[in-house]
Amino acid sequence: MVGRKKKPRSVEDRISHLPDHLISEILTRLSTKDAVRTSALSTRWRNLWQLVPILDLDSRSDFRSFSEFVSFAGRFFDFHKDSSCIQKLRLTTHYLADKSYLPSWIDVVTRRRIQHLHINVVSCYHDFGDIPLSLYTCDTLVHLQLYRVTMVNVDFVSLPCVKILHLKNNHYPNEAILEKLISGSPVLEDFIIIRCPTENAKVLQVRSKTLKSIHVNEFVYVVIDAPLLQCLKTTLHMTKNITFINSGFPAKVDIDFGSEYNMLDPNGLSKRKVIGDILTDISRVRELVINLYFWKDIFPSFSYLSRLTATFCDADLGMLPNLLKSCPKLESLILRLSTNRLYIRGTKNNEPKFTFHTIVIPCVVSSLKFVEFKSPILGYEGEMELVRYFLKNSTILEKMSVTVSNYQRKKRVKGTDAILKELLAMPRSSSACQLLVV
Fold first, then answer.
1. Are 140 and 111 in contact (CB under 8 A)?
2. Gap between the Cα atoms of 210 and 185, Å rounded
3. Cβ(252)–Cβ(266) under 8 Å?
4. Residue from 322, 242, 236 nearest 281 by CA
5. Crossing angle of helices 381-393 and 416-425, rounded to 10°
6. 200 φ, ψ to 5°?
7. Cα–Cα distance, 181 to 185 (Å, whole number)
8. CA distance 258 to 273
9. Chain-centre distance of CA 277, in angstroms?
10. Quick count: other Cβ atoms within 10 Å of Cβ 227?
11. Which spans are transmembrane here (predicted)?
């Protein structure tokens, strides 16, 4: 009939008719907060979120109060006391008035086939209290992260499936518990341990036949026996504190010389000797990330090095040619320049002018393919000269990446447009070179 309005078609809720395991898979793609919100859709959805195998709770961002967080988590873990589907649990808390409930929560999941467990205490004034004994013998855990918790002393540790173990700022009753955690993880591959400076455990012995990556900080002395080791990351304070025993040499080393190295007299002989010994020990690496503000002429020959990331203070940037000369096979170079650029501004106030355009560096000519300036270029003469040198002399250079920032525009020597124009006008030795300005 003319003029009669058609009734709108009802939208069929096909998702609600899916089996529980498929809806659970859909909810897995949501955050825990959004998955819980679906319980308000209908009676059908009321408890479906509890079938999601991933639970990620933050006491501050997900709840209006800490008591609400405790109440919600308590009900959830009580629901899963007899049978739990949780495969991954991440708990982040910013305050703990009562630590007694936490061990029981962890105990529920470690007895119910959990694979990924992340416990994080943000507040530095509270910790979680004792970790339950069941954690030390969980035979399904693959990934364990514990931040600012209290470990208890146990006679036996068995974590047969743990491949990733990250421990940061925890409390340990003694150094032996750390050795038990490592030896009790027979397939461990990735190990991070950051010691709290006030912690009593000062010596760490890492003995593992499967370990591939180690990140260790703040220990007074470290012994590493890991024949498959590929990557080492550490910060050194004053002394050479790492000893390798029967270890395969790591392919990548990320080393940060702590503030003691950077604050003391850079000409001090003892300091230079320690740095020289360390650099000699790692001279066979293929990839090196190094943070050292006082460079001196103490470079060994990095015969195998292909990737280098280095931080340079302005006053020691003149050491860069010597460093590059010690890397005959270098292919990738990432430079971080310190924010104080007095040395490379030019001749103002009789400051030395940075330049080495007449220096021939073998790797620049024959092997260097990628150069990146990680810190923003501000337009100082020395910076531009350095960029110009690589573009002009790198015959097989494929890509150069330069960061230009508008930060502190008033302190610039040149405006962004002038810097960009000068960069694009620079001659390039490699016809295949791509100049990327970020």
1. no
2. 9
3. no
4. 242
5. 20
6. -70, -35
7. 6
8. 15
9. 26
10. 12
11. none
Query: Tokens standing for 189?
Result: 């591959």
How would you classify the pairing of strands 307-312 and 287-291?
Answer: parallel
Contact 210, 186 (CB under 8 A): yes
Residue 420 tokens read as 């960009």
CA–CA distances in Å: residue 389 to residues 386, 395, 428: 5, 11, 9
- Separation between Cα atoms, residue 29 and residue 8, nearest integer Å: 32
DSSP state of 119: E
Count of CB atoms situated within 10 Å of the CB of 368 = 26
C-alpha to C-alpha distance for 436 and 433, rounded to whole angstroms: 10
Q: Specify whether the CB–CB gap between 145 and 120 falls below 8 A.
A: yes
C-alpha angle with apex 108: 107 to 111, nearest 5 degrees? Answer: 80
CA nearest neighbour of 136 among 183, 102, 171, 174: 183
Q: d(Cα 217, Cα 172) in Å, to the nearest integer?
A: 15
Q: Indicate the pTM of the whole model.
A: 0.80
pLDDT in tens, 309-359: 998 776 667 778 888 999 999 999 999 877 554 444 444 444 445 566 677
pLDDT of 75 higher than 80 = no
Q: What is the pLDDT of residues 250-271, one digit of tens each?
A: 899 998 876 655 544 555 566 6
H helices within 81-222, ranges in order? Answer: 102-110, 176-183
Closest CA to 172 of 159, 157, 160: 157
Nearest CA among 50, 42, 47 for reference residue 15: 42
**Residue whose C-alpha is closest to residue 161's, from 204, 117, 104:** 117
Q: State mean pLDDT over 154-167.
A: 96
